[in-house]
Design a protein that fits this description.
Strand content: 15-25%
CATH architecture: 3-Layer(aba) Sandwich
Shape: globular
Bound molecules: S-adenosylmethionine
Distance between the termini: 31 Å
Radius of gyration: 16 Å
Helix content: 25-40%
Structural class: alpha/beta
CATH superfamily: Vaccinia Virus protein VP39
Number of domains: 1
CATH class: Alpha Beta
Amino acid sequence: MDLRERWKTDRLPAAMYDYAVQNGPISHIGARLLWGYDISHLRQNIEAQDPDALTLDIPCGGGIAIQDNPRHVAADLSRTMLDRARGRGAALVQTDINKLPFPSSTFDLCVTYNGLHCLPDPENAIRELSRVLRPGGTLRGTTIVRGAGRDRVITALRRLNLFGPTGTRSDLRRWLTSAGLTDVHLTPSGAVTGFTARKPADNEDAPPPTIR
Ligand SMILES: C[S@@+](CC[C@H](N)C(=O)[O-])C[C@H]1O[C@@H](n2cnc3c(N)ncnc32)[C@H](O)[C@@H]1O
């Protein structure tokens, strides 16, 4: 079973992950031990979401980032995750982050927490998120990165087919800028990096293209 199919159909890792991340003490200790990560950074990132923004939250998992916002669209590949997110007040969509069923320039805010390292092609996913962001809109997220002291854990999770190739912090910066995003801000904590970036408004000059 490939990585995509694993997340789409395997109910056990989805349920185990979501139970752990939504449980305060378990997530706090687990994030610290596994990733050297202070998970309060994730909670602060979520609290900083604008509650009035038309928001796309993908992968939403069991709905950790769903806030009191009637315009919050929560999407994930996994039916198990969407079932867990049900009842939290968001519109739910089952879809692949690599091929979003939304027109370009739709959302004020896209959030992608703890998902890029689970994908075979995170660079393409960021490009797709940038496409559906409206000019002037913001992307926020977190991801595990290689080169921050936890590469052995990443390798083990790759063998279990739960992680993709997983980039370094500088890969992450490159993916964001090459997707045309600007004002890139990275906030590392252990092996997890939080990020924000912005799609230039129509009247702003686009950043110079990145040579790959
Ligand atoms: C580690 S969980 C993070 C979920 C949530 N954001 C959180 O922080 O609790 C990774 C999520 O990525 C989803 N996922 C994996 N591949 C995906 C894809 N190609 N498109 C959309 N979601 C995907 C999984 O179903 C899972 O919910």
